[in-house]
Amino acid sequence: MAKPLIDLNGPLKGKRALVTGASRGIGEAICARLAMAGASVVATARTTDEGESKLPGSLQMTVERLRSAGADAHFVKADLAKGFDRERLIAEAGPVDVLINNAAITYFIPVEEFPEKRFKLMMEVQVYAPFHLAQLVISGMRKRGGGAIVNISSPAGLHPKPPYGGSRGGTVYGMCKVALERFTTGLAAEVQTDGIAVNVVSPGLVDTPGVAVHGLINDRTRDRVQPVEFIAEAVYRLAIADANQTTGRILYAAPFLEELGVAPASLI
Question: Is 173 in the active site?
Fold first, then answer.
């Protein structure tokens, strides 16, 4: 198999892509795939250096991975729970043509015990931050003739079905994802005529540091784990989508790639 390379003349040549939650896992993989298509990548998260978080990975490591392969990449450290940080992020990132809202903070706690502070934090990062960042970039996208916004959701947004029992703690996470998906379809309807495609990729279960810390991969779920390359490829395909043909869609990575007849690319 050929070694994956950066194509500086790829479909995203001359485009700047901002990826949130990019210090590890899905966000890091998305950065790599967009860079392979020629995008100038801006990675953002709270973790600049290895050791700042209990989880492995950092913005420095993500950007070094991209630059070592020949990509144009830099990072902006930001806490998406803070409005002024979101505004500073967009100001420092420069004109954004592709916005990937991947960042999340998640607590799995039953409703009866869920603290208000953590509820508000999850809503701020997973719902309002994507909304606010979109507000901040839409005008520029419109002036440049279009763009793409891809929001990362989860099957947790699907309604539970009977028989009930044995599932406790994921209600707020599901609420966040439902809100994000409804925001996606609503915004898609508002900006399609501006050439801006707005879509969702729902990853399913991916073996990332964040998933590991919650213990979501076990003997019962292991056969459902999906390689991160599937999500990165699906996001890339939506980053280059024509808003007149593909917008307002809630997509699961593997079926979407099957629909397109493409396989996920190996990542740099």
Answer: yes
